[in-house]
């Protein structure tokens, strides 16, 4: 990662989606208001206003790790009315680096994306690239997967890169351990995450434009999650994330941890569950009170020829689709479903590069439409009925997994 001069001015990143938006953007870099609540579950609808967009929540955020969503153009995301997407601090800091990002005026301008951006701090790479990393109190020493060179990612350096990227929402650097880890390492990571938050806040150079979200850690231990949430909420931040899940834990442990964390976090600030993207998980976790989600799943599974539907994932490579002249989903109005049949997609998936783009557009549209349907159901006072209907389609013949039944029962929805 190249070095940003300590006193060099960082140019404003990007521009609002329109001139009209520029005159109506809030003075604070992030404002959140709840506009509707479910009377049965913990689900709610909110509006999160940042410099580049008003984001309706609950929201699914597509992941563009390197500053691009694989197979999908920014204008295609705009056509789907996507309001916010992700970039990754570690990878963008490595390539193209902060010098290029500063010269471009930030990632918004560099990638041609006018709406909101959130950046992951790079902490997840402690797990995904663990064989290349050494974790100390100072930070994380990495061996670059690109050229083998060594670099140190500290909380301060993570903030420096994210300030240069110019994302509307930045994640603190946290000490991430696999969820299946036990013993003193989990508590060590939780306390270090709190210390690193304070260092991140101290290093943040653009607080009038960008917002830091702390990350609640503590593994699968409720007492540690309580301690971490209590400490993080003492800091004056504009939102919070729940981290360290979807890493191999049981679904029963997963939902119970989410349920606990949403009880511990403030109601007047957005709650972001990191790395969760399976449709059934999204429905359950909205019921448990989560507002924001991200995952590479929709585009990654598209590259293998798999499309998302309300009834579950379908593998378009299967011979059963060779003469199927229906769209992926009959009631989907995305450009893919308006234009292409399952038979055509069967013919090109995993063979022609364009197939990745065509299926990815549908999969992202599916995720965004699911979130919109949930927002509508909450606002119309029919969210529990929506959940029951969704689960009946996704798991026919009374095959709903027990963990889903238990999670929904915890918020008063009996399947």
TrEMBL record:
Residues of the tRNA-guanine(15) transglycosylase-like domain: 41-393
- The record's region (RNA binding) falls at 275-281, 299-303
* Protein location: Cytoplasm
Q: Name one GO molecular function term.
A: metal ion binding
Record's Gene3D superfamilies? Queuine tRNA-ribosyltransferase-like (3.20.20.105)
| Residues that bind substrate | 120-124, 174, 217, 244
Names of the cofactor(s): Zn(2+)
> For binding Zn(2+), which residues are annotated in this chain's numbering?
332, 334, 337, 362
Assembly = Heterodimer of a catalytic subunit and an accessory subunit.
- Protein family membership: Belongs to the queuine tRNA-ribosyltransferase family.
Purpose of the protein: Catalytic subunit of the queuine tRNA-ribosyltransferase (TGT) that catalyzes the base-exchange of a guanine (G) residue with queuine (Q) at position 34 (anticodon wobble position) in tRNAs with GU(N) anticodons (tRNA-Asp, -Asn, -His and -Tyr), resulting in the hypermodified nucleoside queuosine (7-(((4,5-cis-dihydroxy-2-cyclopenten-1-yl)amino)methyl)-7-deazaguanosine). Catalysis occurs through a double-displacement mechanism. The nucleophile active site attacks the C1' of nucleotide 34 to detach the guanine base from the RNA, forming a covalent enzyme-RNA intermediate.
Q: Know the name of this protein?
A: Queuine tRNA-ribosyltransferase catalytic subunit 1
Question: Which organism was this protein described from?
Answer: Anopheles merus
């Amino acid at each position: 990662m190249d070095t940003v001069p300590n006193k060099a001015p960082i140019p404003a990143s990007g521009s609002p989606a329109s001139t009209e938006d520029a005159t109506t953007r809030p003075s604070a870099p992030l404002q959140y208001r709840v506009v509707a609540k479910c009377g049965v579950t913990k689900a709610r609808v909110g509006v999160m206003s940042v410099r580049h967009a008003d984001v309706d929540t609950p929201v699914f955020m597509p992941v563009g790790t390197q500053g691009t969503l694989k197979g999908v153009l920014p204008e295609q995301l705009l056509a789907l009315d996507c309001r916010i997407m992700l970039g990754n601090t570690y990878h963008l800091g490595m390539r193209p680096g902060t010098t290029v990002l500063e010269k471009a005026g930030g990632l918004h301008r560099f990638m041609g994306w006018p709406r909101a951006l959130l950046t992951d701090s790079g902490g997840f790479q402690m797990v995904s690239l663990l064989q290349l990393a050494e974790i100390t109190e100072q930070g994380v020493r990495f061996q670059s997967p690109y050229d083998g060179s060594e670099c140190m990612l500290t909380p301060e350096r993570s903030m420096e890169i994210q300030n240069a990227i110019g994302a509307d929402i930045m994640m603190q650097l946290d000490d991430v351990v696999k969820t299946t880890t036990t013993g003193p390492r989990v508590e060590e990571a939780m306390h270090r995450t709190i210390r690193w938050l304070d260092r991140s806040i101290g290093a943040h150079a653009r607080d009038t434009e960008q917002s830091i979200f702390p990350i609640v850690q503590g593994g699968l231990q409720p007492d540690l999650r309580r301690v971490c949430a209590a400490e993080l909420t003492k800091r004056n931040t504009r939102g919070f994330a729940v981290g360290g899940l979807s890493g191999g834990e049981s679904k029963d442990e997963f939902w119970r941890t989410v349920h606990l964390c949403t009880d511990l976090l403030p109601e007047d600030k957005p709650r972001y569950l990191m790395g969760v993207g399976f449709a059934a998980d999204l429905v359950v976790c909205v019921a448990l009170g989560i507002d924001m989600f991200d995952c590479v799943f929709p585009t990654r599974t598209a590259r293998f020829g798999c499309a998302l539907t309300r009834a579950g994932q379908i593998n378009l490579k299967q011979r059963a689709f060779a003469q199927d002249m229906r769209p992926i989903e009959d009631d989907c109005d995305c450009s893919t479903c308006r234009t292409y049949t399952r038979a055509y997609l069967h013919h090109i998936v995993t063979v022609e590069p364009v197939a990745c783009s065509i299926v990815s557009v549908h999969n992202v549209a599916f995720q965004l439409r699911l979130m919109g349907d949930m927002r509508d159901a909450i606002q119309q006072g029919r969210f529990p009925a929506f959940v029951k209907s969704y689960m009946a389609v996704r798991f026919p013949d009374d095959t709903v997994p027990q963990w889903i039944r238990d999670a929904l029962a915890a918020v008063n929805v009996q399947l």
